Amino acid sequence: MQSGHATSAAPDPAFWSAQRILLTGHTGFKGAWMSLWLERLGATVAGVSLPPEYDPSLFALLEPFDRATSRHVDIRDQAALRSAIDEFDPTIAIHFAAQSLVRRSYAAPAQTFETNVIGTVNFLEALRGRLSLRAALVVTTDKVYRNIEDGRAFREDDPLAGHDPYSASKAATELVVSCWNGSFFHERAVPLVSARAGNVIGGGDWAADRIVPDIWRAHRSGKPLLLRYPQATRPWQHVLEPLAGYLRYLECAAHRTPGSVPHALNFGPPANDVLTVAQLAEAMQTALGTSVAWEADSAPKPIEMKTLALDSSLATATLGWRPKLTSRDAIEWTAAWYGDFASGRSPRELCNEQISRYEALP
Ligand SMILES: NC(=O)c1ccc[n+]([C@@H]2O[C@H](COP(=O)([O-])OP(=O)(O)OC[C@H]3O[C@@H](n4cnc5c(N)ncnc54)[C@H](O)[C@@H]3O)[C@@H](O)[C@H]2O)c1
C-alpha cells in the first residue's frame, strides 16, 4: 500500500478535550465519522441535525456516544436552532448540515437553497455575539467554483459560481460566510472560516445517488452498476482526509487572531492523483472481489461537470495539512470497511481502527 506524502499534523487531544463542539449534520456521513473522532479526542459534542435518513445509518450504528448529545432540529427553523445553540454554549461550531446531493437539488431546488443558504444564515445568527465561541467552520464543497472545464485545479481566490442548484447554493453559502465575517464576526475577533473539500469516500455511506453506496448496493444485489458520467474526473479522497483538515483548521483558527489563517481553504487530494468515475468503480469492484460489471446509464440525466480538481497548497502552507492517502489507498480502506461490516464486524470498531491507523500515518 502506498501512503503518506509528508508529515501532516494530527489533531491535538489537549486542545479538543477542553472544547464544547456544536456539530450540525452529525447524523450524516461526514458527521458520523466526525462525531466519533471528536469523542476519541475527548471533546464534548452537541449534534444538531434531522434524524438519520438512511437505514442502515452510520451514525445510528456508532451510537451510543459517551460525551455527545444528539438533537433533532431543522436548521431552517431559526428559533429552534438558536435555542439549541444557546443551551449548549459552544466554544467551537462546525456546520456540516446541508442538502448535499446534486441530483436531489434538481428535484428540490427551493428546499436546497433554504437548507444550505438560509440554514447557514440561521447558524451564524445564532452564533453571533456568543462570548464563549472561539472559532466557527462552515463546510461547503469543491463545486463552489466557476467551472469552465479546463481541467485546472481551483485555488481559493478563483471566482465562485455553480451550474446546478446544489453548487449554486453552496457558492451562495460562501457569500453568506464572507458577509457575516466582514459585517459581524470581525467585531469580536472570532475566526469564521469555510472549507471546500473534494468528493469523499469511506465506509458507512448509504446515501442515494453517491458512487460508493451505488457500487456497494450493486455488489450486494448482483444488479449492474449504472454510471451516469463514467469519464468524469473528481477529487476523490478518504473521508478522514478533509476531517483531519477541518480539525487542524479550527485548532489554528482558535489559537490565532483572525486574519492570520485564511478565511477559506481547499482540502483535496494531490492534483495529479485523479481518477475517473469508471476507474474508481473498477478499482472498488476489484477490491470488493465483485463480478458485477458497470454500464453507462443511458437514462436522461441532469448536467454534471466533467472535470473537477482542487489546489490545496494553501492548506499545506498555512496549516501543515496534506493528504496522507492516495486515491487507491482510499478505495482499499473503503472496500475493506464494507467487506468487514458485511462479515459482521462492529462499525464502531472498524471506524476506530481506521482513525487510529490514519493518525499513525506520518
Ligand atoms: N459527501 C461528499 O462527498 C461531500 C463533498 C463535498 C462537500 N460535502 C459537504 O459536507 C457536508 C457533510 O456532507 P455529508 O456527506 O455528511 O452529507 P449527508 O447528506 O450525509 O448529511 C447531511 C446532514 O445534514 C443534515 N441536514 C440536512 N438538512 C437539514 C436540515 N434542514 N436541518 C438540520 N439538519 C439537516 C442531515 O440530517 C445530515 O445530518 C455537507 O455540507 C456537504 O455539502 C460533502
What does this structure look like?
With 362 residues, this protein is α/β, with parallel strands linked by helices. The chain has helices at residues 13-16, 29-40, 58-62, 78-88, 102-107, 109-127, 165-183, 211-221, 240-255, 277-288, 313-319, 327-342, 347-360, and strands at 20-24, 44-49, 68-72, 92-95, 135-139, 192-197, 199-201, 225-227, 233-234, 236-238, 264-267, 275-276, 294-296. The strands form 4 sheets. It has a 7-stranded parallel beta sheet, sandwiched between helices. Strands 7-10 form a two-stranded parallel sheet. The protein has a two-stranded parallel sheet with strand order 8-13. It is globular. Nicotinamide-adenine-dinucleotide (NAD) binds at residues 25-31, 49-50, 74-76, 96-100, 115, 119, 139, 141, 197, 199-200, 207.
Features:
362 residues, alpha/beta, seven-stranded parallel sheet, two-stranded parallel ribbon, 13 helices, globular, binds nicotinamide-adenine-dinucleotide
What is shown here, in short?
With 362 residues, this protein is α/β, with parallel strands linked by helices.
Tally the beta strands.
Answer: 13
SSE-based structural type: alpha/beta
Which hetero compounds are present in the coordinates? nicotinamide-adenine-dinucleotide
- Average pLDDT, rounded to a whole number, is 93
Count of helical regions: 13
Secondary-structure element pattern, one letter each = HEHEHEHEHHEHEEHEEEHEEHEHHH
Major beta sheet summary:
7 strands, parallel
Give the spatial strand order of the biggest sheet: 3-2-1-4-5-6-11
Low-confidence spans: pLDDT under 50, at least 5 residues? 1-6
**Proportion of beta-strand residues:** 5-15%
